[in-house]
Amino acid sequence: MSVLVNKDSKIIVQGFTGTEGTFHATQMIEYGSNVVGGVTPGKGGQKHLDKPVFNTVKEAVDQAGANVSIIFVPPAFAADAIMEAADAGISVIITITEGIPVKDMVAAKKYLENKDVTLIGPNCPGVITPGEAKVGIMPGFVFKKGRIGIVSKSGTLTYEAADQVVKAGLGISTAIGIGGDPIIGTSTKAAVELLMNDPETDAIVMIGEIGGNYEAEAARWIKAGGNKKPVVGFIAGQTAPKGKRMGHAGAIIGGADDTAEAKMKIMTECGLHVVKSPADIGETIAKAVN
């Protein structure tokens, strides 16, 4: 079993024929992900990267059986692309696009509320189940198969954590990059819960950053009874000045509880193995598992 994506996932790329869509679809196909086609309105019926192009997501679902979508649509149209995928019956929507207007994401998230769909992102690196499916922009060679799950707000630190885990002699079950925007589809807690319930995941690396309360919410959930497996936690932005956005749109200290120090304190109190440097992730997870 794996979380969200696996070898049986039938993946489509929205924004398939664009520069980003083409580049990353090529990488996904080369990795071995089951990409069954893509969507570019007006180009339906053509072939691209030797895969069919559809005008709509509905066509891709009906004709190719698509159940996972990755979105490389420009920011102004990306929320519409998310809603179209949900409407067509896609069960996992992974949105890479950065810079989607907040009001658009509010509408898209509201639209998804009563639908049986998981949205990852936006502004995220995607999801990878090593050796089975890479649905995102991460360097696949870093990730080796194993039993450690990763949940991260940061793209780069997802790859760093994976490298640390592998160098510690372990591997990854599924890594989920949830994205760093103020409004995202899947929270840290929800992603951690997926991995807690996965029988093929033995421990979890949880990477957060300044801003928002996702990490504190996840830590309190773990303490309240979700702590079936050891969790190693790291918060990026320990030297960030207040009121200044750091990298991600959501990474801004708005109050006393948004700082890295406050989050790390809560995580420690909730029983997580908190590290001060990403360089300590591998060693700490190895100790926690053994």
From TrEMBL:
Organism superkingdom: Bacteria
UniProt keyword Repeat, yes or no: no
Catalytic reaction list: succinate + ATP + CoA = succinyl-CoA + ADP + phosphate; GTP + succinate + CoA = succinyl-CoA + GDP + phosphate
InterPro entries the UniProt entry points to: Cit_synth/succinyl-CoA_lig_AS (IPR017440), Citrt_syn/SCS-alpha_CS (IPR033847), CoA-bd (IPR003781), CoA_lig_alpha (IPR005810), NAD(P)-bd_dom_sf (IPR036291), SUCC_ACL_C (IPR005811), Succinyl-CoA_synth-like (IPR016102)
Keyword Nucleotide-binding: yes
Residues annotated as binding substrate: 159
Enzyme Commission number(s) of this protein: 6.2.1.5
Domain called CoA-binding: residue spans: 4-100
PROSITE patterns per UniProt: SUCCINYL_COA_LIG_1, SUCCINYL_COA_LIG_2
GO BP term (any one): tricarboxylic acid cycle
Function of the protein: Succinyl-CoA synthetase functions in the citric acid cycle (TCA), coupling the hydrolysis of succinyl-CoA to the synthesis of either ATP or GTP and thus represents the only step of substrate-level phosphorylation in the TCA. The alpha subunit of the enzyme binds the substrates coenzyme A and phosphate, while succinate binding and nucleotide specificity is provided by the beta subunit.
Protein family per UniProt: Belongs to the succinate/malate CoA ligase alpha subunit family.
Protein name: Succinate--CoA ligase [ADP-forming] subunit alpha
Provenance organism: Reichenbachiella faecimaris
